Known about the structure:
Elements: H1 3-11, H2 13-28, E1 32-38, E2 44-49, H3 53-57, H4 61-66, H5 69-74, H6 80-93, E3 97-104, E4 110-121, E5 127-135, H7 137-197, H8 206-231, E6 240-242, H9 244-256, E7 264-268, E8 276-278, H10 280-297, E9 305-312, E10 316-323, H11 351-361, E11 365-368, E12 377-383
Parallel strand pairs: 7-9
Antiparallel strand pairs: 1-2, 1-5, 3-4, 4-5, 6-8, 9-10, 10-12, 11-12
Helix pairs in contact: 1-2, 7-8, 7-9, 7-10, 9-10, 10-11
The structure holds adenosine-5'-diphosphate.
Adenosine-5'-diphosphate binds at residues 289, 293-294, 297, 323, 325, 327-329, 332, 336, 341-344, 347-352, 376.
Amino acid sequence: MSDEDRNKASEDHSVYGADTLFRDLADNLPGAVFRYVLNADGTDFIEYMSDGCLAIWEVDATVLKNDPTVLWGMILPEDLPDMQMSVMSSAQNLTHWTHTWRIRTPSGSLKWLEGRGQPRRLEDGGTLWNSMILDITDRMEAQAAISERDRGLAMLRRQIASASKASALGALTASIAHEVNQPFAALVNYLHAAKNLHKPATADDPVSGILGDALDQADRASNIVKRVRSLFEQGDIELVPNDVNVLVEEAVVAAEGGAAHHVTVVRDYAENLPQCPLDRLEIQQVLVNLIRNSFEALDGSDEASVLVRTRNLNDFVEVRISDNGPGIDAAIVDDLFEPFSTTKPGGTGLGLSISRSIIEAHNGTLTLDLNHSPGAAFVIALPADLS
Length: 387
Ligand code: ADP
């Protein structure tokens, strides 16, 4: 039927008749339109099926009219009980039927279908539905891909958070151990000297005993501190060739935390980067830390933006994270990468020092670009795998 004919038909049903108009409509709507009847004795038949059934079930409408079991037979066995229940319940209560299920078509493809229908009781006790079935496979697959991606991102965020906590704890412990190691060593030396200098007046002089006990305890404490230090020294990391752009993008998404942010993140990723041998979680921990620092620095700024850029420097891949915030506070700029340099009330000042030691363990560098203004810019250079 041409467009002109269609227009005419809709103006005057008598030209083509309501039946022709209905069939044209039904056959051109997306999905399949059909009338299904469930008899009081449990047998069923399809009173009408539009041509859309061929695209969905790969079966001609005439075949289905004769044998509705063809449709039932394509439903996945695990989806069949729910499907039967939904139809029975709609028939019993005359409630709107709406259901989603999967079929395996004769060519072997798996499809998701969604059906809706309005039931009506017939004089002989049977039930008739005017229904519509849509193929929603694309939508379900897109949803599944999104859920899969969200699950992956949530896991990545948890892993980065726990790796960050573990390394912050490790760094804190290591730096306390480092700080108290010197005084303990000095204490042991002083006690040795005191013991050597002390001349006991009698054989059972109590001061000698006390000095000996003090020396034992100081020795013990000094050894504990040494053991703790060695425990938290940077262990071996597993370097695997990685695409830096992928890691950077995952870190941006993880840092954004899924929430709508006041900061615009501008991505400028270089094409054809060489792979870099990296420990994925550790590098992402660094990236998330730098990006979050920028977000925090930009809190309350108008037109806040963070630029995340990657560049190919042949032997190295450079990742630059810059923002247009207030920049690094002059009071800490000289000790920025030292532990406990922080301007934040609840800050630990460990993030940048841990980040630098992670990058250095990858034979790379993490530096502050002192020429960047306004705002702050951190530059990571990671050795490329050119083998
Ligand atoms: P923390 O975030 O716990 O303070 P960090 O080592 O990650 O520890 O950061 C140290 C300090 O460096 C921060 O307290 C902040 O003052 C400063 N800083 C880091 N990144 C930025 C930035 N993008 N803009 C301004 N200051 C920053």
